[in-house]
Amino acid sequence: ALRYLRTSEIKPFIIFIKPPSSTCFLESRLKYNAMFTSEDGSATPCSEGIISAVIEKSAKLENNFGHLFDFVIVNDDISRATEELIKVAGSVSKDLQWVPAAWVE
């Protein structure tokens, strides 16, 4: 879908929220009793298997579509990641951005 969104009509700024290392990920999710919601809407407690799957899927996304990402934020600290996301979103709305030449012709 990312490939199809990257058009002159939409002009997206794509921010990829990357999971932290598996150790950091598991510790933070266990600390807050995090639940993961599956595609069918059911919630399950955090587990090493789920975290491994999330990290694996994230790596595949980054490998396949990383060239389309305008910015990457590692979610190793939720407060810092949130602040960074707000900062990046603010700069996107104020600062000039590079776009392919074909988009402005």
TrEMBL record:
InterPro entries: GK/Ca_channel_bsu (IPR008145), Guanylate_kin-like_dom (IPR008144), MAGUK (IPR050716), P-loop_NTPase (IPR027417). Pfam families: Guanylate_kin (PF00625). Residues 1-90 form the Guanylate kinase-like domain. This is Guanylate kinase-like domain-containing protein.
